[in-house]
Write a structure and sequence with these properties.
This protein has six helices and eight strands; from the N terminus they run βαβαβαβαβββαβα. The two termini are 14 Å apart. Helices cover 33% and strands 19% of the residues. By secondary structure, it is an alpha/beta fold. α1 links the parallel β1 and β2.
Amino acid sequence: MQSKILVSACLMGHAVRYDGRAKPLLHPAIERWRAEGRLVTICPEMSAGMTVPRPPAEIAEAVTGEEVLAGTARVVELTGADVTEEFLQAAINAVTLARQTGCHYALLIDGSPSCGSGFIYDGTFSGRKQTGNGVTAAALKAAGVEVFSDHEIEQLIDRIAE
């Protein structure tokens, strides 16, 4: 049986991003995996009850999702509202779904404080990027799911082919 792939809903064309938009990833592998029934779609934030649109959020103080999971950092919106609990619930929901559906891989949108796996924003809302994982990406990795960003689809294709 082929392993399934957990995919950020925005990459599948769903308008679920904080700004109410999608960021569809157009690639022949996506269509092939969809036809094979291998894709499991989730927007972690929406699974935790967050609305669309919503204020942008970043992990505060230039830290990463691992620190949020450890309870030493928080996720805040541009408005100043603390949404750490929602992001933690989003991560739990994604890990639970991955386990329930047999997803050994995840393909997530980069830059997100939830799904980012190559980079996230530095918590200043200035557009500055830093290397790091979002909360959901960190939780999936800790659960043994191999996480790839949307910029790493070729590496995911190679990994699945092994």
